């Protein structure tokens, strides 16, 4: 049974309402911080907050009503991230701050964060593209399908309390270029305006998930109805017949997989050759306990090159240790912490693309997240 926290019983005499928060001891602060951050604790709502009116408050004065949450969580706006929406909700139940509803009736969360000294527009600077995709998938589960622009807009405003932090439409577009690309990556491709390359890429994804299957009219009807691929009519319009599309797509799949295998072997050879001239990389590969694992060799080599690029003053032992980090996401955040100046996750991804090692760290084929498997 989960813990139930009633501030009136747990901290007798501590009567709080937005704008009327009494001074607190360090012990009380730590207790409130624990309750706010531990979502398993059920908070009994303090009804005194309903007595507070915010009419006539200017934006800055209204934002200051959220200062107690910053103080309770001991946040430094110059270096820490702003409080999560769920923390605002829980602090509001305790009577410490106004509710999210009160925020959106008057202003935006970003403006509140800015007035408190945080840099809200940079709150997703440490998000990898994979973080965006995971958040997008969570939103899709909540709305029951492809998130619309309005769904994303609402999520960015915090209107889905069980979603957690979510970027705005502009932040998503800034990272992916178009919402259509974001939709595709979270498993909901838009087939409007497709050309031959798009159909072939989609067919490759289908065969990767169903190596021994054939793309049939029934398959197309099912994926089209689910919003996961092209319709039978689109195939007929672009290829004349289903049999022609089947032949071309199977040939394309075999060509792509063969080319990938050859390219992969060449990149492994290049990595080994580089290690012959770079003792630090050679040591890192030698420390790896499965030297024949091509994926790991490519990852170690990629991380070595990126670490050397971003951490120009790294010692050989630091380069070796960074090269051996198992998670590319952890490696990226390590670079961000170690690099001089401001380095974002997007910067690391961009240089990885320029070096041709992005797929060695985050292997992903197009339409990978689209549910095309015939085996459920």
Structure description:
This protein has helices spanning 7-10, 26-37, 59-64, 67-72, 85-93, 100-106, 109-115, 129-143, 149-156, 169-176, 179-185, 196-209, 217-225, 232-239, 242-277, 279-287, 294-310, 316-323, 328-338, 345-355, 358-361, and strands at 4-5, 42-43. The protein has 376 residues and is mostly helical. The protein has four domains: 4-122, no CATH class; 129-185, no CATH class; 196-256, no CATH class; 260-361, no CATH class. It is globular and about 75 Å long. The two termini are 35 Å apart. The longest helix is centred in the C-terminal third of the chain and has 36 residues, at 242-277. It has 21 helices and two strands.
SSE layout and pairing:
Elements: E1 4-5, H1 7-10, H2 26-37, E2 42-43, H3 59-64, H4 67-72, H5 85-93, H6 100-106, H7 109-115, H8 129-143, H9 149-156, H10 169-176, H11 179-185, H12 196-209, H13 217-225, H14 232-239, H15 242-277, H16 279-287, H17 294-310, H18 316-323, H19 328-338, H20 345-355, H21 358-361
Helix pairs in contact: 2-5, 12-15, 15-16, 15-17, 16-18, 17-18, 17-19
């Amino acid at each position: 049974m989960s813990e139930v926290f009633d501030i009136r019983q747990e901290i007798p005499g501590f009567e709080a309402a937005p704008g009327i928060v009494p001074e607190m001891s360090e012990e009380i602060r730590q207790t409130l911080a624990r309750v706010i951050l531990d979502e398993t604790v059920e908070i009994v709502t303090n009804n005194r907050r309903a007595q507070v009116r915010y009419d006539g408050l200017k934006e800055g004065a209204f934002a200051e009503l959220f200062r107690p949450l910053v103080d309770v969580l001991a946040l430094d706006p110059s270096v820490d991230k702003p409080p999560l929406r769920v923390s605002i909700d829980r602090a509001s139940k305790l009577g410490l701050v106004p509710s999210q509803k009160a925020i959106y009736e008057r202003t935006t969360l970003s403006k509140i964060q800015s007035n408190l000294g945080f840099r809200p527009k940079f709150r997703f600077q440490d998000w990898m593209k994979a973080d965006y995709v995971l958040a997008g998938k969570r939103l899709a589960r909540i709305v029951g399908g492809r998130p619309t622009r309005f769904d994303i807009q609402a999520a960015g405003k915090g209107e889905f309390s069980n979603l957690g932090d979510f970027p705005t439409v502009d932040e998503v577009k800034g990272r992916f270029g178009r919402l259509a690309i974001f939709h595709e990556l979270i498993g909901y491709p838009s087939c409007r305006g497709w050309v031959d390359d798009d159909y072939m890429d989609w067919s490759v994804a289908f065969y990767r998930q169903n190596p021994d299957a054939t793309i049939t009219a029934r398959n197309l009807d099912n994926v089209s109805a689910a919003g996961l691929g092209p319709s039978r009519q689109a195939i007929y319009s672009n290829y004349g017949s289903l049999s022609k599309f089947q032949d071309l797509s199977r040939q394309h799949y075999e060509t792509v997989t063969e080319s990938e295998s050859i390219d992969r072997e060449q990149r492994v050879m290049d990595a080994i050759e580089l290690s012959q001239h770079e003792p630090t990389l050679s040591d890192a590969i030698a420390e790896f306990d499965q030297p024949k694992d091509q994926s790991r060799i490519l990852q170690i080599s990629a991380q070595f090159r990126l670490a050397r690029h971003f951490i120009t003053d790294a010692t050989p032992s630091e380069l070796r240790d960074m090269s051996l980090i198992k998670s590319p996401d952890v490696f990226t955040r390590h670079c961000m912490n170690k690099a001089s100046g401001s380095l974002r996750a997007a910067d690391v991804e961009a240089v990885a693309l320029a070096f041709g090692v992005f797929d060695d760290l985050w292997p992903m084929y197009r339409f990978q997240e689209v549910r095309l498997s015939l085996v459920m």
